[in-house]
Each structure stands twice: as structure tokens, then as C-alpha cells.
Design brief:
Structural class: alpha/beta
Shape: rod-shaped
Largest sheet: 8 strands, mixed
Oligomer: single chain
Number of helices: 10
């Protein structure tokens, strides 16, 4: 007997019991009233029970009907929750949340995101800007691009993307000042440059102006405030359009960019796809920068 009962007939019963009306149930289900009535009769016949009393053209649940309705409420409510979860998971699978340092985001990554999206991998990058320690779970971050200038948790999965290269740049159209624009977002960078003598002695003697982010240093340099020390990945456009010129050639600063993840990369194909794309693009970007420099020499 139980095998004869269809989920469809239970659904029709659920709507009739919920609204107390065949008419309202048929409207909610987008079927005819006769279709609803037929499903209710089939269910009652299959169970051998009366589920509704017909009183003055109204449907009143019997005790058996009330018991079945209570069960249906639990089952269909759980089904609804399950379907919502499935839809949410599908939506989330279409978005990979990436945390990235602000200036690299603005100057390097964002100009390339349209190209990445055009490759139709089936997901898009949701970009959050930030630096330092990553709150993966608190901010629902999937992956993060960081330099290895701080210690991340030993349980964090990471993969090296590329070495960092820095350059000293200045405005090509304004009088030069003996001011060096530095960022407070990399407090140890100047110490490393000074200790390792990565730039010329005259630049080492400049007075310092400290700004909050590299993009402020770049804007300050464009405005003629002074010479800026920045990453090669941050000034591609400014160099290629000759808004800025190199005062000192690129040098590796002993740090590197890493992609971080709270879970293993191989568990999420999207992470592997983006990681591989990022490696290729940042390597290509570095090689193109060096080639353009050689062409100008």
C-alpha cells in the first residue's frame, strides 16, 4: 500500500491542509481544482483513511489528516531548507573570494579580472582588499594573496607565486626633490633596502615622507612630491605611458608573493585554476617589464 503513495500526492495534500481549500491549493500549485481533488482522493484510497471531513463545503482535517499534516510540515520544511542550501552552495561555487593587498589589487589585479572572467571558468573572483593576517573563516575568504613579510599560521596552506621586485621611480615632468616616498604598510622594507644597499647612495640620503599605502606613494610621485620605491607590479601602466621613469633598475627584495588558503588547494578546483592563472600572469608581467626595460637601454 505504501508503495502506491507518490510524493506528488503528499505535496497536494500538504497544500490543501495548509490553506484549508482546494481552490487556494490549486492556485499555489498552478494546476486545476479537479487535479488537486483527484490527488487527494488517490492518497485517501492508497492509505485507506479519510484525511478531510467535508463540512459545509469546507475541508476539516481528521485526526489522521492532522497527524499526516504534522509529518508533512517537518518533511517539506526540511526539503525547502535543503533546496535553499543547494542553491546557496551553487551560488557560492560561482564566487571565489580573494583577499589581496590594496595597491596590487588596484594596479595589477583589477585590470586583469575582466580577462580572467572572459576565460569562462564558471566562477568569478570577489575581491576584498587587506593585508597581513587573514581571517579566512570570519570573513568567508577562500584564498589570499600576500607577501611573506609576516608569519602566517603553520596550518595555513600556501604556494609561492613569484618573487617581489622593487624599483625607484620619479615623475618625468616635474622638478625633482630630495624626498623619498615610503609606505607604512611595509614598515620593514626601508630597513631591508638600507641594510642591503638595494638602491644608490644618493637615494639612501633622501628625506622620507611616509604615506599609508603604496598607491598614495605612486600618486604622490605622479604629483611631483618625490621619488617612490614601489613594486614593479604596481607601476606597469605609469612606466609604459612614461608618466614615471626608473631612477634605479628592478631588484629582488628577498620577499615573494604567496597564495594562501585555509584548506588544501586540491580540494577546490577553482583555487587550483586561479593559482595557475595567477602564476602565469605575474610571471608574464615580470618578464614583460624586464623586456621593456632592456629595450630602453
Amino acid at each position: 500500500m505504501i508503495e502506491k503513495i507518490s510524493l506528488n500526492s503528499l505535496k497536494f495534500f500538504y497544500y490543501v491542509a495548509q490553506h484549508g481549500s482546494v481552490t487556494l491549493a490549486s492556485q499555489k500549485l498552478f494546476v486545476t481544482q479537479s487535479a488537486v481533488s483527484k490527488q487527494i482522493k488517490n492518497l485517501e484510497d492508497a492509505l485507506g483513511l479519510i484525511l478531510f471531513d467535508r463540512v459545509n463545503k469546507k475541508l476539516i482535517l481528521t485526526s489522521n489528516g492532522s497527524l499526516l499534516f504534522a509529518c508533512c510540515q517537518q518533511v517539506f520544511a526540511r526539503l525547502d531548507d535543503c533546496l535553499v542550501d543547494l542553491k546557496n552552495q551553487q551560488y557560492e561555487k560561482k564566487q571565489l573570494v580573494l583577499s589581496c593587498e590594496p595597491t596590487i589589487s588596484m594596479k595589477w589585479l583589477i585590470p586583469r579580472l575582466a580577462e580572467f572572467n572572459s576565460l569562462n571558468y564558471g566562477f568569478e573572483i570577489v575581491l576584498l582588499t587587506g593585508g597581513g593576517i587573514v581571517d579566512f573563516q570570519g570573513k568567508s575568504i577562500d584564498i589570499a594573496l600576500r607577501r611573506n613579510d609576516f608569519e602566517w599560521d603553520k596550518n595555513i596552506f600556501h604556494e609561492k607565486i613569484i618573487e617581489e621586485y622593487i624599483v625607484a621611480v620619479r615623475n618625468t615632468r616635474t622638478d625633482q626633490t630630495n624626498t623619498l616616498l615610503l609606505t607604512s604598510s611595509r614598515p620593514h622594507l626601508w630597513q631591508h633596502i638600507n641594510k642591503s644597499k638595494l638602491v644608490s647612495s644618493d637615494i639612501l640620503s633622501y628625506e622620507h615622507m611616509v604615506l599609508e599605502h603604496f598607491y598614495l606613494c605612486i600618486e604622490g610621485c605622479l604629483a611631483g612630491l618625490g621619488t617612490a620605491i614601489v613594486s614593479i607590479f604596481m607601476v606597469e601602466k605609469e612606466i609604459s605611458h612614461e608618466f614615471l621613469e626608473l631612477v634605479h633598475p628592478p631588484v629582488a627584495d628577498s620577499s615573494s608573493y604567496h597564495l594562501l588558503s585555509y584548506y588544501p588547494f586540491y580540494e577546490d578546483e577553482r583555487k587550483v585554476i586561479f593559482k595557475n592563472w595567477l602564476k602565469i600572469e605575474m610571471t608574464r608581467s615580470k618578464e614583460q617589464f624586464m623586456k621593456n626595460l632592456q629595450d630602453k637601454l
